[in-house]
């Protein structure tokens, strides 16, 4: 089942600029490809923090623009002329290193091998293997992936740059399989699942569950990434009241119907209250000015 | 069973036991609680929710009409304790015989409980057509991925909705398998 039902919500530009067209004219794949070749050419080295969760990368201004356009990392405020520093998250570092193969990574001034980098990232975060697999799965389809923690999710996925479009999905990653050990996976109890559903709905995103499963695969090396399989599923709430006609579109998570009606009523009431109040006030004003 | 209960609750139906005495709501609710005839509170509440909205709901494993039943299991002698030979409109006498089928039927959480059609005044029990969707009742934990796949494969084609009942609050969820498109 292809995911085009709800459709992307493009933001509105100044002077009615058409962001959807802008995005179409500059596909994410070409922005990322440009970034890749630019970084590769400069043989840049990102510095991993010794906690292993973030890295910093210094780039020239042209590369900074590309990093921003491709929505990787966060630009750091810095007065250094001609150079821009970026902070990259664990998945982003590994994607640039392993996925796009356009940077190297060092830690304590020593260049890290692929295995060493993997070990560092895994020891910093137990769930790194499945998080990275989910991240690279979406990125390789040219979705923009950012942290979703502020929405109670692991990631949020955008159809293009976050400045142009609202994110459609709140992504929760669920590991499946003995290899992932006794991790407390998400969505194992109703309270958690319905909480995630509610949280994503309140910010108008569809809850996308990426289950990362492994058959027989040791997670100790990045070679396991090829063996991991990502299953995509959405969890949506179905409102019986709204779907009594034929060809009903499943809605994004909506608040409980009672609340919805209440909210609607309140909004309508307030709207008329404002109109009424305004009318009264303006009449008073006119009255006062006349006399 | 559910239809009778539903109608009884709405005061539209009076159940008579085999002594021709009225069966009160207390007894009816008692039967639901005991899980008699494979009917549970959750199932009943889901049924009720949809019926009140006008959907056409039937038990998945029970045919719409008796004309579809050919097995010899069906008897006409009511030795069931809530046998009602009185029918008021929709509570047809077929319920009697259907209870026989329901007795002892085990309802697995990941097996559809209901088949549902959209509200349709032209609905015919003799030729109901394909259900608009099937309803599975959910248990105490969210369904794991492999169980979802198994149910989907068994009833391929017909959309599945999953019903979770919490203190009278009936929620329907869809766990749709999707494929995110590769973007340009």
Automatic annotation (TrEMBL), chain A:
PANTHER family in the record: TRNA-SPLICING ENDONUCLEASE SUBUNIT SEN2
Reaction(s) catalysed by this chain's protein: pretRNA = a 3'-half-tRNA molecule with a 5'-OH end + a 5'-half-tRNA molecule with a 2',3'-cyclic phosphate end + an intron with a 2',3'-cyclic phosphate and a 5'-hydroxyl terminus
Membrane-spanning residues: 269-287
Enzyme class, broadest EC rank: lyase
Domain of life: Eukaryota
Protein name (record): tRNA-intron lyase
CDD domains: tRNA-intron_lyase_C (cd22363)
Species the sequence originates in: Aegilops tauschii subsp. strangulata (Goatgrass)
Family under the similarity heading: Belongs to the tRNA-intron endonuclease family.
A single Gene Ontology CC term: cytoplasm
UniProtKB/TrEMBL annotation, chain B:
Entry's Gene Ontology BP terms: tRNA-type intron splice site recognition and cleavage
Cellular compartments per GO CC: tRNA-intron endonuclease complex
Protein name as annotated: tRNA-splicing endonuclease subunit Sen54 N-terminal domain-containing protein
UniProt lineage: Eukaryota, Viridiplantae, Streptophyta, Embryophyta, Tracheophyta
